Amino acid sequence: MYKTPPNLVQLLNSYLDDRKFVVRIGNSSSESKTMKAGIPQGGKISPVLYSIYVNDIPTTHKTLLGMYADDTTILARNKNPKYTAAAINQHLQKLDNWFVKWKIALNVSKTEAVYFAKGEKKHKPVIKIKNKIIPWSQQAKYLGIILDNKLTWQSHISSIKTKFRNVTRKLYPLIARDSDMKRKYKILIYTAILRPIIAYGCPIWGSAAKSNINKLEVLENNIIRQICKAGWYMRNEDIRKAIKLPSLKDFIKKISVNFYNNIENIDNEAIQQIDKYTPNIKSKRPRKILL
């Protein structure tokens, strides 16, 4: 039992009790209604209150539970798919009981399962929650990163390309060759807005095949040449040196080195359970990018 000071309990109760909400669409607003559950979105202490609320979420020694806000994932591994499924189903059953206890509604239709393996498994084990079978997917999106079942990162990189091009179109009047904006500000737009679209999560997918990384380099090179009004005879390497901008590979490696150097100092149970290994040039594991 937690010995929470009564005054703090009363303070939090006054913060949450009898709160009102209104739905606004355009210039029209609904009548105010009383919130019977939940916490104020955007409230400064809402993340803390949510963490307290899910503090007793069940875990098992055969699975790894990863949580970021309300995005939750369960990981299990074993050479035998049946044991993997049994571990996940056991954990899901505990979660189902916990949901009922704390009156949490789970959207089963948004729940996905991905079987990560080198080879193709024709007969995959059944995974259920609330007596409903969770379909096996070829990929799943978690925290903005698309994880395909072979971890080739092709789908994720295709998604990056699409998002990058969409944002580039919106910024085109500012960074076009005939734009009157000074070059240093165009470069600032690229480094502050466009490059983060490419680099997000790169310590994870940065070990993708060279052919996939090259697709992103082409995107970057085209924008840099456009910003600098480069002629066809100018080399990409020379342009980068002139504007003191590292290549995409060097930038990704720098971020990854900082990430993996600091990861052991992160006080997170899920991260601490990740196997430590020495990167191998022939391996496709994430730390390969450090070589």
Automatic annotation (TrEMBL):
Spans through the membrane: 187-206
Record-annotated Reverse transcriptase domain positions: 1-147
Record's keyword annotation contains Transmembrane helix: yes
InterPro entries reported in the protein's UniProt record: DNA/RNA_pol_sf, RT_dom
Keyword Metal-binding attached: no
Keywords attached to this entry: Membrane, Nucleotidyltransferase, RNA-directed DNA polymerase, Transferase, Transmembrane, Transmembrane helix
Pfam families: RVT_1
Gene Ontology terms, MF aspect: RNA-directed DNA polymerase activity
Protein name: RNA-directed DNA polymerase from mobile element jockey
This protein's encoding gene: pol_3128
